[in-house]
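Intended use. Records like the one below are meant for learning the mapping from a protein sequence to its folded structure. Do not use them to infer anything beyond what is encoded.
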Amino acid sequence: MTPLRWVLVLSGWAALAAATFLPDAGVLRVLVTTAFLLVCPGLAASRWARSAPAYARDRTAVLETGLLAVVISLSLAVIVAETLYLSDAFTVTRALLALAVVTSVLALVPGRRSRRRPVPDTGSPTAAADQPEPRASD
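Structure written out for the chain above:
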């Protein structure tokens, strides 16, 4: 298991511990929980669902992954908060617990990988039949 997956698994539980044991409005509590809520659930979800190779390290791929992680994290946080509000059970501890569980499960489950093999071009007659017919000029 990669170090990123371990960081994702432990991040939710660290945020839950920070929200439970650190003083209210403490700087460390705010930093840990905000960083977790903004990045970790979405990064775990995008890592799990990614079909692109993990070795893409160019700047565009890193920015895309970062933006996708933030958007998915915020979406998951809204879904959890709305569900807890509608069931009259919302507390910060319960919301962080639900997100920590989701993040841990997504980080521990092996990622989906595309298992499709490229179809070799055999030069079959069906390739020529798939081409559109040229129009007759009038």
